[in-house]
Design brief:
The complex is a heterodimer of chains A (about 80) and B (about 200). With about 80 residues, chain A is of the alpha+beta class. Chain A contains 2 helices and 2 strands. A two-stranded antiparallel sheet of chain A has the order 1-2. In chain B, helix 1 packs antiparallel against helix 2, helix 3 packs antiparallel against helix 4 and helix 4 packs antiparallel against helix 5. The chains are: A alpha+beta (about 80), B mainly alpha (about 200). Chains A and B meet through helix 1 of A and helix 3 of B.
Chain lengths: ~80, ~200
Amino acid sequence: MDEKKNPDPWAIPDIGPETDEKKSESTADAFDATQWHEVKKGETLWKIAEQYYGDGNLYPKIFDANRDVLKDPNRINIGQKLRIP
Amino acid sequence: MHRHVYSFVIMILAATLLAACGSGDKGPAETALKAAEAAIDSAKGEASKYMPDQVKALDSSLAATREKLSKGDYKSVLSEAPALTSKAQEIASAAAAKKAELTKSWEGLSSGMPRVVDAIKSRVDILSQSKKLPAGMSAETLAQAKAGLSEITQQWTAATEASKGGNLMDAVAKASSVKVKAAEVLTLLKMPVPEALKS
């Protein structure tokens, strides 16, 4: 990915293969209504918030819902599975 | 003349004998009917909640059998009362099984549905804060989702109250309608529909 052409202030350099930090997408709970998102290359919490909420400014909602796996909203890994509240 | 008197005496003796045979059944008929009444009373409490139509039919049959007792039709009572007793026991067993089934359904629903409702509420709250809705979602869709959430919340409260009041049938029926509505709202919000809401 060419970071210089990316205008997104929250753009995060790809830091390699995903770290498997969340496996509960395969939960057997029949009532689980959690929406999960698998991080793809070039994505940021801002972009993900835009996708699901229409508004990137709401990215803190996603960060707060994933405090168990995210320490920094600027650092997400490809392949990481994030809860989308 | 002696023949007439003789015939008359024979008739009186025959009638007395017949009456004696009939009244000999009275005691057993009363006992059998009491047993049926006791079995029905015992079954009624729970069975009325889960199988009201069957209980009503049983009550009607009991009333008919009581009528026969009062009219002296002891043979019919002796035939019908044990069948009523068996039927009462059968209904009691079926009601117990129904109660167990409903209890299990309610336990699953009461542990799972609040999480579904919370997930919907969370998404609706967040979207309500959004300056712009996500692709494929209109303001009308969000308004429909909000109305759906309100309906779900009210109906779930009603289901919970019914359960607390011991009315499991009503609780499960209301919870099932919440499931259907929740699935609709999740679809409107483009959220995944859990397996339990698909059945």
